[in-house]
From TrEMBL:
Site (Transition state stabilizer): 438
Cofactor: Zn(2+)
GO MF: metalloaminopeptidase activity; peptide binding; zinc ion binding
Signal peptide extent: 1-22
Primary gene name: LOC109896001
Low complexity composition-biased segments: 20-29
Enzyme Commission number(s) from the entry: 3.4.11.-
Localization annotation: Endoplasmic reticulum membrane
UniProt domain ERAP1-like C-terminal: residue ranges: 603-922
Protein name as annotated: Aminopeptidase
Species name: Oncorhynchus kisutch (Coho salmon)
Keywords noted in UniProt: Adaptive immunity, Aminopeptidase, Disulfide bond, Endoplasmic reticulum, Glycoprotein, Hydrolase, Immunity, Membrane, Metal-binding, Metalloprotease, Protease, Signal, Signal-anchor, Transmembrane, Transmembrane helix, Zinc
Domain Peptidase M1 membrane alanine aminopeptidase positions: 281-486
Domain Aminopeptidase N-like N-terminal, first and last residues per copy: 59-246
Length: 944
C-alpha cells in the first residue's frame, strides 16, 4: 500500500482560500500551463476556474479510497489516491469538495514519483463546491498521474454525504451508524472527487472499523486485515466503472438475511438487529425482481452481490447505489402483523424501482442531470412492468393511471417545465427529481411502449442498455436505439425487421425513417405541458383539434394566445366506438386534423385506456353520449377508460371548460361500479371537494356534501368488513372507504372504530388490529385526550416504522390545536419524532382543517432551520411548500404566500416549486369561483 503522509501545513491551504476571479480562456481547461517551477507564493494564486461544471481536460480513472470513521467522536479521516488522465497540458487539477478539510495534496507521476518536493497549495471555491490543486510542474497532456489527498470531516448531521444516524434498541440503548447518500451532488461532501455523472471511474474502497461493526460498500469485501491497534480494515473488490453519485459505504451493527438468484448473485437484506424479522419479504421480492430484470433486459446484473439496507435515518424513499441500495425503513421492512396491503405494494414497488436503476442509471447513466428522467422516468415505469409480472396479485397496473394523473396535475399549470430542462446548480439539480421526471417520464414511456408494441419497446431498450453500458446517454441515444431495432446489416440494406403485422402497425419504424421517432418524442420531452384534444363529430368524420391544456388560464383570458404560441405535439391517438371492438389509431401531427369514423357510429371514446398522455374534450353531444353509455352499460368501456373519463371531466371543470354538473352527472353511474379504480377516482373528487369546503368553512355545502356521499355510497360502505380479508383491491377499497366514512362522521363507522380502539387499548396494545383499518381506528381514538396520549406513548415504543407512521397520522388528525402544536415541536426536536419524518408530519398537520394555519406559520418561522435540515430543492422542502400551501383558496392567502416568498427571495428565486405553489393556489381560487355555485345547487337538487 502506498499512503504518503505530508506535514499538514494548514496555513498554506488556508492562504489559498479565494473566490473565483479569473475566467478561463476556454471552457474545457484552466489557463496558462507554466513549464517552469515558480516559487510557491500561494497568495498570488487565484482560483483558476469559474464554471459550475468541471473542466474536461482531466478525467478520473481510478479512485483508491481509504476511510476511517470514528462512531464515537463522530468524525472521519480519509485518503484518496486518484489516477488521472490528463488530456491537455495544465498546472491545475480542479475537482469537487464540500466541507472537507483537505490537509495534504501531492501529485505523483505514473511511476509514483513525486512531481514536486513542495506541499501543494489547495485553493477553495466554496460557492462552486470546488477545489483546485496547483502543480508547479506542468501535467502533460496524454499522460497519467496520481493525485493524493488526505482529508477529514465530521460525520454529517443531515442526510447527505457521509452522515451519522442513530437508532434505539428495545432496552433503550442508543446505537450509532454511519451511512452515505450522494445523489445528486453530495459525493463531494464525503471525499474529494469529480462529482459529475459523466466522470465514470473504478473505485477501490477500504474502510477501517471496530470489530463490533460491519462495513458495507458497493462491492463485496476482498480481504480484511487486522491492524496493530485492533481495528479491522475491510478492502472491497474493485468496482465496475461508475459515476460518483452511486458510490456508497456504511458502517453499522446490522443483521442480514441472504439468498442467491438463479444467476448466482448474492442478495442480502440488512436491518437493525431487532428488525431482522421484517426483512424476509424484501429478500424474496428482491431475488424475484432481480431475476426478472436480468431476463427482461437480457443483460446480467454485473456485480457478485446486491445488498439492500434499511437505514434508520433516511430522508428520501430509497437510493440505488450500485450493489448497496439504501432504503428508508418503511420502504424495505415489511411486518406481516402491522403492514397493510398498500404497505406491501409500496415495499415491492420501491425495490422494483431501485433494482431497475441498476440498469437504467447505474449501467447506463444520463450524460447530465437535465436528462435525469432517463433514470427516474424509466425506473418508475419499470416498477409497473416488473411488478405486473412478478406479483400479478398486487394489481400494480391499477396505479398507473394515477401516476399519470399526478403528472397532469403539475403539467397543466403554467409553471411546469419540459422533461429535459436546464439544471446547473446543485439546487436546480435537486429540483429535477420531481413529478415531471418521475411521473410524466413514466407516462410518456407508457405511451411510447403502446405505440411501438411491447416487443419492439423491449428490444429497443435492450439495445440502448447494451450500446451505452458503463457509459452515458442522452435522449437522442434512446430514440435512436428504440427506432433502430434492426441489426446494423438489416438497417443499412434498407429493409425492415419485424413480422408483417408489427411493421404494419409501426410503419414509421422502417429503416431510414427512424428520425420520425425523434421528432415525435421531442414534442413530449422538450416541450412543456400536456395536450388537450377536442373532438367533434361532423357527419361521418371526427374533427380533431389540439392545444396546450391549462387549468388556470381560460381561452377568454388575454394571456391565452401567448401561452399557446408554438405548441404542437405528435399525438399517437387511439379511439374506440360502439360499432366495433377494435382500437383505431391515428398519429396526429398537426394542430387540426380529422379522421373518418362512419355515419353509423354512436359514441366515441378517445385515448383508449389512457395509454396516451393527453386529455380529451368532447364537443357537442359527445359528453352526453358517454354519460348515457356509463349509465346504460358501463362495462362497454374498460375500467381504465371509465377512470380516464372521470379524471378528464373533472380536469375540464377545473379549467372552466366543462360545467361541474356534467362531471357530477358522469359519476352518477358509480353505484353500479364494481371496479375499485374508477370508484375510488370518483370518490376522491368528492372527498377533495368536501375537504375544500370544510377547510373554507362553508357549512351548508359541507353538510350537504357529507350527507350526499354517505347516502350515495351507503350500500358499498355497509358491505365493508373490519378485517384484512380479500384481494388487494378489495382491501384498498375498504381502507379508503372506511377512512372517509369516519372522517365524514358516519355514526356506524365511528362506533365500530371506537369499539376497536378501546378493545385494542384494553389489550395493552397486544391485540393486533386489521392493518387496513388501523389508521382509521387510531384516528377516531386520537380524538379523545387519553386516546391521543396513549397513542403517543405507543409511538415511542413501537419497533415498526409503518406502524409508527399510522400512529403519527392519527395523532396529527386531532382537532386540538395544542396537540398539533406539540407534535410540530417534537418534530423539530427530532428525538421522539425523527427529523426524517418531519416533512410528512408538517403536511399531515396542514391537511387537518384545524392545523393548516399552524403548519404554515411554523414553516415561515422555522424556514431556515428546515432548509438546514433538508437542503434547498430537496424533495422534503418541496413537499413542505406544496403541502402547506395547497390548502389555500383565497387571494388573501395567495398574497400571504407571495409575501413570504419575497422575504426569502434569495432562496425562493432559485426554486421552481415556489411558482408551482402559487399556481396551485391560483387554481384553487379559480375552482371556487367557477364551481362552488354549481356544486351548491347540484347538491340542493340531489338532497331534495
Ligand atoms: N435516485 C432516487 C433517489 C434520490 C431521490 C436521489 C431524490 C436524489 C434526490 C431513487 O431512485 C428514488 O427515486 N427514490 C424515491 C423512491 C422511489 C420508489 C420513487 C424517493 O426517494 O422518493
Ligand atoms: Zn429513482
Amino acid at each position: 500500500m502506498f499512503w504518503v503522509r505530508f506535514l499538514v501545513l494548514a496555513l498554506l491551504s488556508q492562504a489559498g482560500v479565494t473566490q473565483t476571479s479569473s475566467s478561463p480562456t476556454h471552457a474545457s481547461a484552466p489557463p496558462n500551463p507554466t513549464e517552469e517551477q515558480p516559487p510557491l507564493n500561494t497568495g498570488s494564486l487565484s482560483f483558476p476556474w469559474s464554471h459550475l461544471r468541471l473542466p474536461e481536460n482531466i478525467v478520473p480513472l481510478h479512485y483508491h479510497l481509504l476511510l476511517h470513521p470514528n462512531l464515537t467522536i463522530l468524525s472521519y479521516i480519509g485518503t484518496v489516491r486518484l489516477e488521472l488522465q490528463v488530456q491537455n497540458n495544465t498546472n491545475w487539477v480542479v475537482l469537487h469538495s464540500k466541507g472537507l478539510r483537505i490537509t495534504t495534496a501531492t501529485v505523483l507521476d505514473q511511476n509514483l514519483a513525486h512531481l514536486s518536493d513542495q506541499v501543494l497549495p489547495v485553493l477553495h471555491n466554496p460557492t462552486h463546491e470546488q477545489v483546485a490543486i496547483f502543480s508547479p510542474r506542468v501535467l502533460t497532456g496524454g499522460q497519467k498521474y496520481f493525485l493524493l489527498l488526505e482529508f477529514g470531516a465530521e460525520l454529517g448531521e443531515g442526510f447527505y454525504g457521509f452522515y451519522r444516524s442513530t437508532y434505539r434498541t428495545s432496552t433503550g440503548e442508543t446505537r450509532t451508524l454511519a451511512s452515505t447518500h450522494f445523489e445528486p451532488t453530495s459525493a463531494r461532501m464525503a471525499f474529494p472527487c469529480f462529482d459529475e455523472p459523466s466522470f465514470k471511474a473504478n473505485y477501490s474502497i477500504s474502510i477501517r472499523r471496530s470489530p463490533a461493526h460491519t462495513a458495507l460498500s458497493n462491492m463485496p469485501v476482498d480481504q480484511t486485515v487486522v491492524l496493530d491497534d485492533g481495528l479491522m480494515e475491510d478492502r472491497f473488490a474493485v468496482s465496475v466503472r461508475m459515476s460518483s453519485y452511486l458510490v456508497a459505504f456504511i458502517v453499522c451493527d446490522f443483521r442480514s438475511v441472504s439468498a442467491t438468484t438463479a444467476s448466482g448473485v448474492k442478495v442480502s437484506v440488512y436491518a437493525a438487529p431487532e428488525k431482522w424479522e421484517q426483512t424476509h419479504y424484501a429478500l424474496k421480492a428482491a431475488v424475484k425482481l432481480l431475476e426478472f430484470y436480468e431476463k427482461y433486459f437480457n443483460i446480467n446484473y454485473p456485480l457478485p452481490k446486491q445488498d439492500l439496507v434499511a437505514i434508520p435515518g433516511f430522508q428520501s424513499g430509497a437510493m440505488e447505489n450500485w450493489g448497496l441500495i439504501t432504503f428508508r425503513e418503511t420502504s424495505l421492512l415489511y411486518d406481516p402483523t402491522t403492514s397493510s396491503a398498500s404497505d406491501r405494494l409500496w415495499v415491492t414497488k420501491v425495490i422494483a424501482h431501485e433494482l431497475a436503476h441498476q440498469w437504467f442509471g447505474n449501467l447506463v447513466t444520463m450524460k447530465w442531470w437535465n436528462d435525469i428522467w432517463l433514470n427516474e422516468g424509466f425506473a418508475t415505469y419499470m416498477e409497473y412492468i416488473s411488478v405486473d409480472t412478478t406479483y400479478p396479485k398486487l394489481r400494480v397496473e391499477d396505479y398507473l393511471l394515477d401516476t399519470c394523473f399526478v403528472a397532469i396535475g403539475r403539467d397543466s399549470l403554467n409553471s411546469s417545465r419540459p422533461i429535459s430542462s436546464v439544471a446547473e446548480s446543485p439546487t436546480q439539480i435537486k429540483e429535477m427529481f420531481d413529478t415531471v421526471s418521475y411521473n410524466k417520464g413514466a407516462c410518456v414511456l407508457h405511451m411510447l411502449r403502446h405505440y411501438l408494441t411491447d416487443q419492439v419497446f423491449q428490444i429497443g431498450i435492450m439495445r440502448y442498455l447494451r450500446r451505452y453500458s458503463y457509459s452515458n446517454a442522452r435522449n437522442q441515444d434512446l430514440w435512436d436505439s428504440l427506432a433502430n431495432t434492426c441489426s446494423e446489416e438489416e438497417f443499412t440494406s434498407g429493409g425492415h425487421c419485424y413480422s408483417n403485422s408489427q411493421s404494419a402497425k409501426n410503419a414509421y419504424l422502417y429503416a431510414g425513417e427512424h428520425l420520425d421517432l425523434t421528432t415525435m418524442m421531442n414534442t413530449w420531452t422538450l416541450q412543456t405541458g400536456v395536450p388537450l384534444v377536442t373532438v367533434a363529430r361532423q357527419g361521418s368524420r371526427l374533427v380533431l383539434k389540439q392545444e396546450r391544456f391549462l387549468r388556470t388560464t381560460h381561452p377568454s383570458d388575454p394571456a391565452w394566445p401567448s401561452l399557446q404560441q408554438g405548441y404542437l405535439w405528435h399525438i399517437p391517438l387511439t379511439y374506440r366506438t360502439d360499432t366495433s371492438t377494435s382500437i383505431h389509431r391515428h398519429l396526429m401531427t398537426t394542430l387540426t386534423d380529422s379522421v373518418e369514423v362512419g355515419e353509423e357510429v354512436g359514441w366515441v371514446k378517445v385515448n383508449v385506456d389512457m395509454a396516451g398522455y393527453y386529455l380529451v374534450h368532447y364537443d357537442g353531444p359527445g359528453w352526453d353520449d358517454l354519460i348515457q353509455l356509463l349509465k346504460d352499460n358501463h362495462t362497454a368501456l374498460s375500467f381504465m377508460d371509465r377512470t380516464h373519463l372521470i379524471h378528464n371531466a373533472f380536469q375540464l371543470t377545473t379549467a372552466g371548460r366543462l360545467s361541474l354538473d356534467k362531471a357530477l352527472d358522469l359519476i352518477g353511474y358509480l353505484r353500479s361500479e364494481s371496479h375499485t379504480v374508477p370508484l375510488l377516482q370518483g370518490l376522491a373528487y368528492l372527498e377533495a371537494f368536501y375537504r375544500m369546503v370544510e377547510r373554507m368553512d362553508i357549512p351548508d355545502v359541507t353538510q350537504n356534501l357529507s350527507t350526499y356521499i354517505l347516502w350515495y355510497f351507503r350500500g358499498v360502505i355497509d358491505r365493508q368488513t373490519w378485517s384484512d380479508k380479500g384481494s388487494v383491491s378489495e382491501r384498498r377499497l375498504r381502507s379508503e372507504l372506511l377512512s372517509l366514512a369516519c372522517h365524514l362522521g358516519d355514526l356506524p363507522c365511528l362506533e365500530q372504530a371506537q369499539r376497536s380502539f378501546t378493545h385494542w387499548l384494553d389489550s395493552n396494545s397486544t391485540l393486533s388490529l386489521p392493518a387496513d383499518v388501523t389508521e382509521t381506528v387510531y384516528s377516531v381514538g386520537a380524538q379523545e385526550d387519553s386516546g391521543w396520549a396513549s397513542l403517543l406513548h405507543i409511538y415511542t415504543l413501537s419497533l415498526s416504522e409503518t406502524h409508527k407512521h399510522k400512529i403519527l397520522s392519527a395523532l396529527a388528525s386531532s382537532r386540538d390545536t395544542n396537540k398539533l402544536h406539540r407534535l410540530l415541536e417534537l418534530g423539530l426536536e427530532g428525538e421522539v419524532i425523527r427529523t426524517q419524518d418531519l416533512d410528512s408530519l408538517i403536511v399531515m398537520v396542514a391537511r387537518n382543517p384545524r392545523g393548516h394555519h399552524l403548519a404554515w406559520s411554523y414553516v415561515q418561522k422555522y424556514w431556515s432551520t428546515l432548509v438546514d435540515k433538508f437542503q434547498l430543492g430537496s424533495f422534503s422542502i418541496r413537499n413542505i411548500i406544496i403541502g402547506t400551501t395547497g390548502q389555500f383558496f383565497s387571494t388573501e392567502e395567495l398574497t400571504e404566500v407571495r409575501v413570504f416568498f419575497e422575504s426569502i427571495h434569495e432562496q425562493a428565486s432559485q426554486l421552481r416549486v415556489t411558482q408551482v405553489a402559487m399556481d396551485n393556489i391560483q387554481k384553487n381560487i379559480l375552482w371556487l369561483q367557477r364551481n362552488l355555485g354549481t356544486l351548491r345547487s347540484w347538491l340542493d337538487q340531489q338532497i331534495d
